[in-house]
What we know:
With 249 residues, the chain is α+β, with helices and mostly antiparallel strands. It contains 9 helices and 10 strands. It has a 4-stranded antiparallel beta sheet with strand order 3-1-2-9. Strands 5-6-4-7 form a 4-stranded antiparallel beta sheet. Helix 2 runs antiparallel to helix 3 and helix 2 runs parallel beside helix 4 (63-74). It is globular and about 45 Å long.
Amino acid sequence: MSGHSKWATIKHKKGAADKARGKLFAKLIRQVEVAAREGGGDPDANPTLRTMYQKARDASVPLDTIDRAIKRGTGELEGVTYEAITYEGYAPHGVALLVEVLTDNRNRTGAEIRTIFSRSGGSMAEPGAVAWQFSRAGVVTVPPTVAEDDLMLVALDAGAEDIADDGDSWRVTCEPAGVNDVRAALEAAGIPVESAETTMVASTTIGLDDAAAASAVLRVVDALDDHDDVQNVYANFDIPESLLATIES
Length: 249
């Protein structure tokens, strides 16, 4: 999963372009709206909304835009009702994919996701065929300049389960419900946080050391991620950092 996370980070850095940033904003706003609809508009009483709110702020989504999304979710402003659906499938070389969407038209989105899979070299799978390979976790990333001992002391005391070196960041893993507490504890200790979110982590990964194979897999991931209704794409590939950098360039 580390390779997939790093590819997502690279894409977000490239997302400084207006079109890419607009797509990212739209997805985050939709997530905020759904979180408010399902758990209420108070971030202090709705952990999911609190996480989505902070994720949107980390991406520099304007406060008034976030506030309007919350009001649409709670019914204070008129909005669209979105349905959460998870699709399962495979990219080339047996790489498993989970695709989370928020849609106002299940039939349209399902047909479009199936078309993306088939046109980009992947294939759809039956429900349950892939999901068992993933589990939900909280992940907090911290700059690599933070001393490992300092990070470990605070993070483990706050409920973190693991700390890993991803090269250009530290990855702190915890229970999904504890991600906000871990983030708050780190920031209270003066440790900067780059991001904090709940995500799906693969139990095993498929290593891709060949540029052609890696590109074929990333082609499917990117095509899915580019769909307006797709919120997250999770995969169990692991591509070396040097190869990712080569493909990105």
